[in-house]
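ingest -> validate -> predict -> emit
validate: passed (alphabet ok, no gaps, 107 aa)
predict: started
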Amino acid sequence: IWLDGTNRLWRAVILQALLDSAGHSKSINPSWPDWKHKQVKKEALDWLLHDNEDFPMVCVYATVPEVAVRKLAKKIARGDANAKKLLIEWRDIFSKQIKETKNGVEV
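emit:
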């Protein structure tokens, strides 16, 4: 699927929020105190689950269904292991697409 730079940017915003909501900020920022990780996780979940202004527009810009992202966020919030696995798979696919684009290969 061909995505332009705008789609990729907004998908990265959603992906980062999902990763933060799953508690993955610890691996990226291990020096942060625990309270900071909890705050980032809470803010990400609040945005993913309750924001009705910016979040829907970000989904439009990212060309991803708002309902699907919120559904995944709810599963992550409940600690669903399959949802967290899916999130990591999406992160890896997204990373691969970015690398292939940088190398001049359209995905």
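The two ends are 6 Å apart (CA to CA).
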